Amino acid sequence: MSPDVTSEKRALRAELRERRRTITAAERAASTQSVTANLIELTSGLGVKSIAAYLSTPDEPSTREFLHWACDSGIRVLLPISREDGLLDWAPYDGTDEDEDLLGMPTPTTEVLGPIAINSVDLIVVPAASVDRTGMRMGWGRGYFDKTLGSMERCPPVYAVIFDNEFVDSVPSEVHDQKVNGVVTPSGITALPSTQPNSAA
């Protein structure tokens, strides 16, 4: 791991976190409405019957309204639960109760299915700090999603949810970082030139 790249990522993540914290309530409400509509459009257009996604935290572009729509629409939703070994377990989400995992991230309270449950989904929706126009995703530094995507033999489309100003020309990357197939932002859905995310490793 290059110290220069690591430092660059750390500084960029700090800048992005601060930028997210300064978004006004009105801007956040507008982005939630737009992101929800775009996620519904993406999911409907792909005709998916099951998705792996995540419950957004207050500073992230909101996925919660979309996930409630998915549950109400009969789409099977799996959400991640962080493990101490760096892998993700998955559990079904019913749009109601939630808990916190070992990292303090919101998780469902249903039966834990284990890491391989994600292999059955039609679409993966992931968080990101930033994504560039080649599809390279920069996460928040824990590596859970990179490890998950890199281990999948047959990966469905993967879309990251970010704010518009986080979709950039390039991001610092390392060999383990995984690409995504597209991004969903408040302004729209953008398919990217990457093929399978795990082809970027």
UniProtKB/TrEMBL annotation:
Which Pfam families did the record assign? Answer: 5-FTHF_cyc-lig (PF01812)
The biological processes this protein is annotated with in GO are: folic acid-containing compound biosynthetic process; tetrahydrofolate interconversion
What are the recorded GO MF terms, alphabetically?
Answer: 5-formyltetrahydrofolate cyclo-ligase activity; ATP binding; metal ion binding
The UniProt keyword set, sorted, is:
ATP-binding, Ligase, Magnesium, Metal-binding, Nucleotide-binding
SUPFAM superfamilies, alphabetized: NagB/RpiA/CoA transferase-like (SSF100950)
Query: What catalytic activity is recorded?
Result: (6S)-5-formyl-5,6,7,8-tetrahydrofolate + ATP = (6R)-5,10-methenyltetrahydrofolate + ADP + phosphate
- What PANTHER family is this protein classified in? 5-FORMYLTETRAHYDROFOLATE CYCLO-LIGASE, ATPASE INHIBITOR/5-FORMYLTETRAHYDROFOLATE CYCLO-LIGASE
Per the UniProt entry, the Enzyme Commission number(s) are 6.3.3.2
Q: Could you tell me the superkingdom of the organism this chain comes from?
A: Bacteria
Q: Binding positions for ATP?
A: 9-13
* Cofactors, names only: Mg(2+)
InterPro entries, alphabetized: FTHF_cligase, FTHF_cligase-like_sf, NagB/RpiA_transferase-like
UniProt name for this protein: 5-formyltetrahydrofolate cyclo-ligase
Q: Family assignment?
A: Belongs to the 5-formyltetrahydrofolate cyclo-ligase family.
User: Can you tell me which residues bind substrate?
Assistant: 55, 60
The enzyme's first-digit EC class, named in words, is ligase
